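To: structure subgroup
Subject: Chain for Friday's discussion

All,

I'm putting the inputs and outputs inline so they're searchable in the archive.
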Amino acid sequence: MVKGNHLGHQIGFPTANIKVLDSYKLIPANGVYAVRVKYKKDIYKGMLNIGMRPTIGGTEKTIEVHIINFERDLYGEELTIYIDSWIREEQKFEHIDALKLQLEQDKRAVLNS
């Protein structure tokens, strides 16, 4: 995991920012995905975002995962992410509160998958 700008934490959806170290790995299309995250020996549900983060004016593609019901510091740790299903395309919201509402819906979709 690499350091981010902590916006996810500020809006109640902390994320682990993923850096793919192996150039041969394929990165899925931009969007939001329901995932399972393996950390050490445990598996957690999560939601993965791949994209530019247009709501906050992002200028670089990022990969970040919110692990549901998980509160540990993951800096420098290794995760394995298993993509289960596509939730939605990446989109730009008019303001952070609208993004937060959508993230709540995304979380419900993950928990129901």
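Points worth raising on Friday:
The chain has a mean pLDDT of 91.
DSSP finds two helices and five strands in the chain.

D.
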